[in-house]
Specification:
Radius of gyration: 27 Å
Helix content: 25-40%
GO biological process, one term: asparaginyl-tRNA aminoacylation
Number of helices: 13
Strand content: 15-25%
Distance between the termini: 33 Å
EC number: 6.1.1.22
Bound molecules: adenosine-5'-triphosphate, magnesium ion
Subcellular location: Cytoplasm
InterPro entries: Aa-tRNA-synt_II (IPR004364), aa-tRNA-synth_II (IPR006195), aa-tRNA-synth_II/BPL/LPL (IPR045864), Asn-tRNA-ligase (IPR004522), Asp/Asn-tRNA-synth_IIb (IPR002312), NA-bd_OB-fold (IPR012340), NA-bd_OB_tRNA (IPR004365)
Largest sheet: 8 strands, mixed
Strand order of the largest sheet: 6-10-11-16-15-14-13-12
Keywords: Aminoacyl-tRNA synthetase, ATP-binding, Cytoplasm, Ligase, Nucleotide-binding, Protein biosynthesis
Structural class: alpha+beta
Shape: globular
């Protein structure tokens, strides 16, 4: 029979109707009250058993974690803490759960570190229930935003043969016997015998293919997994992460910044409106966590005011050169968090610099533009000064870089010259260069790391806790 979700029952104004509910037992007390959770909400549904109606054998099997099906009437609850409860008429145990072995038996809230060790079961906790429902809603809001603006969702390939962008960070894809690969005349691996007849790898970004789409549909976005074999064991990097990459024809850098800012505000606005309950749970969790920390490490705003602040304030916009001046002129603050070294013009900003600008100096999201061309990718549009490119990075409090984007160089000759300077394989990239040969136009786009967005919105501190199945160096559990 059709089951009704717990969330729906708890929201329904009506009472005195029959339902079937199915879920997992969170707790069972006094041989009478089951707290049932089915993943639709963190709020449990109270199931009340008629005393004496249950056999001792069934009573013994009503343990935390067991899967059950209940048929009964939704009635007003006399107990405090819930408006309604279900008076069980029929109860069936669908799957037993051995209380001796079940790792989520713990009375106290298990630590995030412990839950990372049992990542295959952590979805059943309130914390991860809330995180992954919010993640789902954000993904939905991403598609909603672009769909409403007429963007085409273009699926770019996971396996690619282009290696222009990911130098040194790519996972190779091969069907060759890696212990005994065929070798060419000079002793290097001969990829002619490989599956695709050439070396291939997992994509680090869908942008280059996305540009082909933008040159036909005008506005496209891709939203899929990307892979980087960077050996960065940080709380902000994954080896497999999801990236949202819109690419727009007839856009300049300013249009690009405007879209990125509107996009971030729109998806945050969506969850504030639609995921209040889960956000409030996460906010409270964070507040409790904060109480354990020394004063200066506590968050200044609660989670929801922090999200509302982003929604209601314009992002600060300045150039890389202006940012370097600020960093040079700021007295180094020698707390552990901001122990930055003041850099000279030309260096890439480290995350301490980014966080200083966002968290100490401007105290709001920042868009930095016009970076030195030497530290940015080959496809970015070159400025008249010959030194900088029309790049933008968006920096967020507590996160650092959340978006990297640019206006693209649409001039064929300038692009090829830049590729040659950077020793990129111009011949192998002729498919890409066709975008500059046949009806080139100004265009721009950006990449937003989806997990960094989820980190910000959930207030979590480690990127491993906002992706269902984290992939990091020396760890691939499933
Ligand atoms: P970072 O400086 O943090 O290493 P990046 O400049 O190398 O990032 P880009 O190539 O600009 O990253 O990618 C676009 C966006 O993808 C970044 O702004 C970030 O949000 C996200 N991102 C990049 N690398 C990772 C990663 N390893 N794990 C999760 N998200 C990432
Ligand atoms: Mg990086
Ligand atoms: Mg970066
Ligand atoms: Mg970047």
């Amino acid at each position: 029979s059709q089951r009704v979700k717990v969330k729906q029952i708890l929201l329904d104004e009506n009472t005195n109707y029959d339902v079937v509910v199915k879920g997992w037992i969170r707790s069972f007390r006094n041989n009478q009250f089951i707290a049932l959770n089915d993943g639709s909400t963190n709020n449990n549904l109270q199931i009340v058993l008629e005393p004496d109606s249950i056999t001792p054998d069934i009573l013994k099997r009503l343990t935390t974690g067991a899967a059950i099906s209940v048929k009964g009437a939704v009635i007003p609850s006399l107990g405090k803490g819930q408006r309604v409860e279900v008076k069980a008429a029929e109860l069936e145990i669908l799957g037993d759960c051995d209380p001796e072995k079940y790792p989520l038996q713990l009375k106290n809230r298990p630590s995030l570190e412990y839950l990372r060790e049992i990542a295959h079961l952590r979805f059943r906790t309130n914390t991860f229930g809330a995180i992954f429902r919010v993640r789902h809603a954000l993904a939905f809001a991403v598609h909603k935003f672009f769909n409403e603006r007429g963007f085409v969702y273009l699926h770019t390939p996971i396996i690619t043969a282009s290696d222009a962008e990911g130098a040194g960070e790519m996972f190779h894809v091969t069907t060759l016997d890696i212990k005994n690969p065929p070798l060419g005349e000079n002793g290097e691996i001969d990829y002619k015998e490989d599956f695709f007849g050439k070396a291939t790898n997992l994509t680090v970004s869908g942008q280059l293919e996305g540009e082909l789409g933008a040159m036909a549909f005008g506005d496209i976005y891709t939203f899929g997994p990307t892979f980087r074999a960077e050996n960065s064991n940080t709380a902000r990097h994954l080896a497999e992460f999801w990236m949202i990459e819109p690419e727009m024809a007839f856009y300049d850098l300013e249009d690009n910044m405007n879209l990125a800012e509107a996009f971030i505000k729109s998806v945050i606005g969506y969850v504030l409106e639609n995921n209040r309950e889960d956000l409030e749970f996460l906010a409270q969790r964070l507040e409790e966590e904060d109480k354990q920390k020394p004063q200066q490490e506590r968050s200044e705003l609660g989670l929801i005011p922090k999200l509302e602040f982003v929604l209601n304030n314009e992002f600060e916009r300045l150039t890389y050169t202006e940012a370097i001046d600020i960093l040079k002129n700021s007295k180094p603050n020698k707390t552990k968090k901001f122990n930055y070294i003041i850099e000279e013009w030309g260096a890439d900003l480290q995350s301490e610099h980014e966080r200083f600008l966002v968290e100490k100096h401007f105290r709001k999201p920042v868009i930095l533009t016009d970076y030195p061309k030497a530290i940015k990718a080959f496809y970015m549009k070159q400025n008249e000064d010959g030194k900088t490119v029309r790049a933008m990075d968006i920096l967020f409090p507590g996160i650092g870089e959340i978006v990297g984007g640019s206006q693209r160089e649409e001039n064929y000759d300038k692009l090829v010259t830049r590729m040659e300077e950077m020793h990129l394989p111009v011949n192998e990239m002729s498919w890409y260069l066709d975008t500059r040969r046949f009806g080139a136009c100004p265009h721009a786009g950006f990449g937003l790391g989806f997990e960094r967005l989820v980190l910000f919105v959930t207030g979590m501190g480690n990127i491993r806790d906002v992706i269902p199945f984290p992939r990091t160096p020396k760890s691939a559990e499933f």
